[in-house]
Structure formats: structure tokens, C-alpha cells
Please model this.
Amino acid sequence: MPKGSTTINTLALFDWTVGPDLVMDASGNLYGTMNGYQDVNGNVVAPAVFELSKGSGSSWAISNLASLNSNITTLLINASGNLYCTTSPYDVNGNPIESMVFELSKGSGSAWTLSTVASFDGDIPQNLLMDASGNLYGTTIASDVYGNSVQTVFDLLKGSGSSWTLDTLAAPFSFANGSPGLVGLVLDASGNLYGTIFDYANGVGSVYELSQGSGSSWALTTLVSFDWHNGPEGNLILDPSGNLYGTNPYGGDLEDGAVFELVAQPSQITGTAWNDANHNGTQDPGEGGLAGVTVFLDLNRDGKLDPGDPTATTDTSGSYTFTGLHPGTYTVRQVLPDGYAATAPRGYSETVRLGAGENAAGPSFGDVRISSVTLGFDYLLLIARNYGQAGTFADGDLNGDGLVDFDDLVLLARHYGRPLRALR
Model:
């Protein structure tokens, strides 16, 4: 009970058991699930998702949002207030059915729409979570012909409209029946997944990472292994610095249990700045690095260097490095050197997703001294070709605002046959 609290308020009473998950929206309304059952007359009461909406004073109103065919095992809410749930593979009467992932989307007023995200034939989805883009992740469990538990990690990528794409991220794991197997799934800011594995019978326990590669590929890495005395079993916690915390139910010298921490290794971002002598936006042979260019992490994404934004300066080869970074998403920009125009990258910045202990590639900044570029017919063609589109100086953006437009055409007319005096 919270410190200083002396009262427990009952918000609602139910005729049957409620599910373990309770979630809250931004307005303070609560959502949960009720298990299905047969009443004393043999009538089936379907499992349901309910809402507890806060009224005036201490009053709460309960409403049934949707009834399902099987009990709900996981409940999740997103920033928009939409609900997502997984269901068991048996109906209320004990008959086998497909496990499902459902979405309950909130409409106007009290209207809710129930739709199917994915169905699993023989596999049971669990440990559901969502990333910032609205994609879902979770684990599945099934049994093979030998009675062993076979589990996978999956994602559900959100497409246009109501479409979702189901994909398996890691090859199936096999565990002795009754072992917890894959649990503790968490997601970091860069989209990497972390979880635990515990197999009682084989004495295997570990914490793993699933990191996203190119396209739809994922790489599985074991971060630490435990013997069966110290195997992790519960959920993991991920802090803002990328450190992981968990429990060992039989850890310690007396096997009475322990709490562990996995300290994340610092991450870094490296990149270059170069002299784009032919101002084409590509580093060609003979175009060397630019020294002394200030590169910064635009923490508030306002497009300019502010106090507190981390900075790095390019060395004699044009290279820069940011070290000691926490996992997260960073916008990398440069302070354009005086007398130069930027030719790369498009948009004049890049977003870098950084995982724990990762050495990520930052943008390569192309810059050209404007006094070396005579504006002529070639730039008229560039502006005509890229008019109305995002671009750099290499595309015809002469004033450096990131867009090729009429203002650039005016600058070209004023400086035709000679270099720009300055940007803007």
C-alpha cells in the first residue's frame, strides 16, 4: 500500500474472474478483461474487454466494449487509446480454436470497433508490446510431437489501412515442457528487442538481444548465460541508459533468489565531412575530408545548435565521433562552415537509431565553397528538374532552405554567370 494510504476503494465488482492486465488511457480511464464462464444454468458468458470510466467524485462507470470467443491473455493500449489483446487457444467450453491478436479501435462517442490483426494456428501469442511506429511484437508458444515447448519471437508490421504483416524474427526455440522459455520481452528506443530464456530441464538460462538488420533480417545475440541455479525467469526492465534488470528465482549462494543488472556498453556515432569540389552530392575520388567542421546532435530537433547539444569537430581526415551515448534516436546535423554550401545529405541531417554498445554510422556531410561555383545553365537545368522537391545545393537549392523553388530561381537570375556571394 502506498505510504500514508489507509483506504482501499473497490471500483467495480464482477460475477467472475478478471484477467491479470489492467491498462489506463491518457484521460485516466481503466481497461481490463473478464474471463468467460458457464453460469449455474449452463449458459455461456463470453470473455469480454471492459472499460471503467471515471465519473464525478469517486464514481466509476463500467461498460462492456467487446465480447470474444476465448479468454484474453494479454492487454495493451497505445497512445491513441486503441486496445490490443491476445487470446487463448480454447473457447469457454474447452474446445480448441485459433489464438488471435485483436485490435479494439476507439471511434466517436462510445463506439468501439473490433478487428482481427492476426490468427495463430496451434501457436499461442503472448508478451505483446508495441513500438513507436505502431508495430506489434510478442512471443508464441506451441508443443511439438515430443511434448516439448516450441517458442518463437514474432512481429506484426502495420501497413496501410487495416493490413498487418506477420513475420517470425528468430528461429524456433525448443524447451522441456513446463519451462518458462521465452519471457521478459522489452523494446529499446532503437527498435532492438531483449528477452530472457529459461529451460529448467536442460539447465539453460540467458538474456538475449534481437537487433534489426537490413530489410526484414534480425540478428540474435546472447548477452549473458546463466547456469540453472541463476537462470532468469521474470520480465526484464530497461532503463533510459540501456541497462537491463531482472530476477533469478534461484540465484545467490543459498539459491534463494537474486536481482541482477546488465550494464550496457556505451554507444557511439561516427561519420565524415568532405569537400565536394564538383558539388554533385557524392564523394568522388580525390575529394578529401574537411577539418574543423562542427557536427552536433540536435536533441530538440529544432534545426540549430543549442546549449546542451553534444558536439564533435572533424579531424584532419574529416572524421567525427560521438562517444558515450545512451541508446536512442538522434538527429545529426552540421554547423555549415562560413562560405560553404551543403550538398549532402538530403535534408541536411540524418536520424540515427542507436542500440546499446553499438557503433553506428552517422551522416556524411558534403560541403562546397560557394566562391568556387559559377552559376550557369547547368543550375537552371537542376532547378527545372527538381523544382518543388526537397534538395541540397547539388540539386539547385541555392538558398539552403532544403527546398528547390522560386526563391532559388531568383538567386540564379541575380548571380547568373558568377558565384553566389552568400547563401540566402
About this structure: The longest strand covers residues 359-369.
